[in-house]
Design a protein that fits this description.
By secondary structure, the protein is α/β, with parallel strands linked by helices. The protein contains 14 helices and 17 strands. A 10-stranded mixed beta sheet has the order 3-2-1-4-5-6-7-10-8-9, sandwiched between helices. Strands 11-12-13 form a 3-stranded antiparallel beta sheet. Helix 2 links the parallel strand 2 and strand 3. Helix 1 crosses helix 6 and helix 5 packs across helix 6. The protein is globular, with a radius of gyration of 24 Å.
């Protein structure tokens, strides 16, 4: 009889690494949610915050360049700090099979250091996933520009990239009337669900088994990803679980119509039927496309009578948020509509809107107002350059899953001729109701 030797090397080693202020807060919240099977690591330039992160593995980077006082919202300082302690970063993540990086984009440490941490993880041949938070529109154009550059740098080194929108978080918190602390926990729960879903997937023994090799097949070098965990109960639980897994209100730039691969892990009780497994797979295919390659597993949990938990990982699509932002930064100006024509007008530019003033017969200037058409684009300006995503909504998984947006300028007819400067200070874009 052949005996199977229990060897620690068989265990899939997973690390969740929080980088910068937002990343370290996420790690602290993940610890509070409760997770086993993943090592939590906090990395920051701010010693004061690190002292309040109750995880065993913390690393203060860039002590020579920052003196432990943070990166001052400068991504270059964050990058140099990580390079200064690159060997220490390698030591913290050594022997890991999977590294999940979480950070806020747009500031100093997260934006600058997270790509360096991803490079270190790639160097040890770990699978690398990043879940990052973009700044809100109100934080200004420079921060959004830094965020897009940080995302672009991360993309070079990660196998899967997931973008969480702060704008959507604000909208969601307003709709649900959530206090700010609870709202930020909702964003961190996306990181938690991704980590917990993967831990359950690779560490659970299934009736139909999936393993780390399957995860690597689906995620390795795929670029952009969706990782969702959904729960269903009672009648229609299979459909409910898939919809909850795919329809996160906080994710940005998700368009699954061109997705290539999916890994699905179903955890259910004794009363889950074979036809319900088919329903889960069919709904994921309907949310993507008929050519999607699916690997799935089934884990039995007797405590889930009448319930089902589904983890879905989808890759091989392109995140439209990053793609459109890249184009935006290059083009600098985005025209947003036709401008009125008058027989005699003085035209000047403010941002990407050309305004005209028509002289009346007595020589006074009269504002005749611009004609601004709706834009079928994912990106529009608010009161600064076009690097701000419109808030958007996911479609039902009964159709190919895509987050889309259209927008229009608020009615400006009542604004006077001298409104140009005030427009960019006070006017916001609103979403057109479908």
């Amino acid at each position: 009889m052949i005996e199977l030797e229990q060897n620690v090397e068989e265990i899939t080693r997973i690390a969740v690494v929080g980088v910068g202020g937002a990343g370290c807060n996420a790690v602290r919240n993940i610890l509070g949610f409760g997770i086993e099977g993943a090592e939590l690591i906090a990395i920051n330039t701010d010693l004061k915050q690190l002292r309040n992160i109750p995880v065993p593995n913390v690393l203060a980077i860039g002590k020579k360049i920052t003196n432990g006082q943070g990166a001052g919202a400068n991504p270059e300082i964050g990058r140099k700090a990580a390079e200064e302690d690159y060997e220490e970063i390698l030591r913290l993540i050594e022997n890991k099979h999977l590294v999940i990086i979480t950070a806020g984009m747009g500031g100093g440490t997260g934006t600058g250091a997270a790509p360096v941490v991803a490079r270190a993880a790639r160097e040890i041949d770990a699978l690398v996933i990043a879940v990052v938070l973009t700044p809100s529109a109100e934080e200004g154009p420079r921060k959004m520009k830094y965020a897009i550059e940080g995302l672009r740098n991360l993309r070079e080194y990660v196998d899967g990239l997931i973008v969480v929108s702060n704008d959507k978080l604000f909208e969601y918190a307003k709709e649900k009337q959530l206090p700010f602390f609870t709202a930020f926990k909702e964003a961190d729960k996306i990181v938690y669900d991704a980590a917990k879903g993967i831990v359950d997937l690779v560490h659970s023994e299934g009736v139909i088994n999936v393993d780390f090799a399957d995860l690597r097949t689906v995620i390795k070098d795929k670029g952009d990803a969706l990782i969702g965990k959904g729960f269903g109960e009672g009648e229609g639980r299979a459909i409910q679980a898939v919809e909850n897994a795919l329809n996160s209100p906080l994710l940005e730039g998700i368009d699954l119509r061109d997705a290539k691969s999916a890994l699905i892990n179903i955890i259910s009780g004794d009363d889950f039927f074979l036809d319900e497994i088919r329903t889960v797979l069919e709904k994921v295919r309907q949310a993507t496309n008929k050519d999607l390659d699916i690997i799935y597993g089934l884990v039995h949990d007797p405590n889930l009578a009448g319930k089902v938990s589904v983890t879905i990982i989808i890759t091989g699509f392109t995140n439209s948020f990053i793609e459109n932002a890249d184009k935006d930064l290059i083009e600098e100006v985005m025209p947003i509509g036709d401008i009125f024509e008058s027989v005699e007008s003085d035209v000047y530019s403010v941002g990407n809107i050309r305004m005209g003033e028509e002289r009346s017969k007595n020589g006074n200037r009269q504002h005749s107002g611009p004609v601004i058409q709706n834009q079928p684009t994912n990106f529009t300006r608010r009161n600064y350059p076009p690097t701000t995503p419109m808030r958007s909504e996911g479609e039902s998984v009964r159709q190919p899953y895509v987050i889309r947006s259209t927008s229009e300028i608020k009615d400006l007819d009542d604004i006077g001729a001298g409104f140009a400067e005030d427009f960019f200070e006070n006017t916001f874009i609103r979403k057109v109701d479908d």
